[in-house]
């Protein structure tokens, strides 16, 4: 399939696909007339990249997942390098959650200090 069809099927843009190619994540084979040529494995790789980006992974973090797929695995997250990225991301998320909880505690303390009331933790559902 050509780049436009791959973009349509993956729900992305040709510009993104060219960028993935530039970053070495999506190899582009060329037909005799110079058109990029992709197959179903490329579609799987693009879908893997897009799903990881959608949940907050950096583009470079997708590389082990794509390589895992390219190695013939049914999914991109069964290889040790992919699991290592998952673990690193979990650590980042845990750190972020801890920082947010600390900020929340400070804001709640400020509300209690200035109003004499415990801060409300649930919004009213009207």
From TrEMBL:
A Pfam match: MerR_1
Residue stretches making up the HTH merR-type domain: 1-68
Listed SUPFAM superfamilies: Putative DNA-binding domain
UniProt keywords, alphabetically: DNA-binding, Transcription, Transcription regulation
GO molecular-function terms, A-Z: DNA binding; DNA-binding transcription factor activity
Domain of life: Bacteria
Record InterPro entries: DNA-bd_dom_put_sf, MerR-type_HTH_dom, MerR_fam
Protein name (database record): DNA-binding transcriptional MerR regulator
Organism: Kutzneria kofuensis
